[in-house]
Amino acid sequence: MTQYVFDNADTRAETRFAALAAFDAASHAVLAAAGVAPGWACWEVGGGDGGIGRWLADQVGAGGSVLVTDIDPHWIPAADRPGLTVRRHDVVTDELPDTTFDLIHARLVLIHLPDRHAVLDRLTAALNPGGRLVLEEFDLRHPPTPRTADPHHVATFDAVHTPLLRALESRGVDATWAGSLPDTFVARGFLDVRVNTTTSLWRGGSEEIQLHRVNAEQLAGPLAAAGVSPRALADFSALLEDPTFTVWSYPMVSVTGTRA
Ligand SMILES: C[S@@+](CC[C@H](N)C(=O)[O-])C[C@H]1O[C@@H](n2cnc3c(N)ncnc32)[C@H](O)[C@@H]1O
To answer: Is 137 near ligand 1, meaning CB less than 6 Å away?
Structure first.
């Protein structure tokens, strides 16, 4: 099985999915602009808790179909809509589904996969001519900036977040992937390439800011190896609960293209 740094077997995955749901409205808008409509066949890759897959199923209706796959789909409730199918599937190594799709969507999946260019080939091959590919990824070249005048807040955040980014990169996450996607789509011959970016302000104590806490907790080993002390981690967690602390989210870059 492909290595994924934030294993869904960890119960903190639930907190991660709840935090990422802060981007759902933006994802829905991008998918609607991509044209998703009744009767379409869709593949939601690395579906997480299945929230986007369920939304897609509502858009395509009983006459369409949505396949939601994940290497660990246990957070996805049993398919509860007509045409919705949930399956365990490794997009790097497993055989492609035996049908092709009008729309393929993956949010925060390929950025984790060292074989992301080969995966992009596979996803392209799984699209019908005229089918839409929508990839959404965090642009890690623009790390979150604390929006605070308190230099202690900035130091406390960066003391964990900077080594966290380094730990992710050393585990195969590509910080430049999101920024390169528009050119990558064009170079691969996708038509009508569109790019949207969504950034919001996260406040201490909010559901979405918990993403930073669970990411740091799941990387506690590599952070300790990089010299991050338990005290620094505790201060970081406390800061994330402080309602006077705000930090910009990672920019979510959404790229849509049409297969020629
Ligand atoms: C950061 S989460 C994002 C979940 C969801 N797409 C979202 O945005 O809320 C990444 C998801 O991709 C899945 N994943 C990681 N590697 C995968 C692979 N090789 N094949 C399929 N899914 C994978 C993980 O299990 C996890 O559910």
So the answer is: no
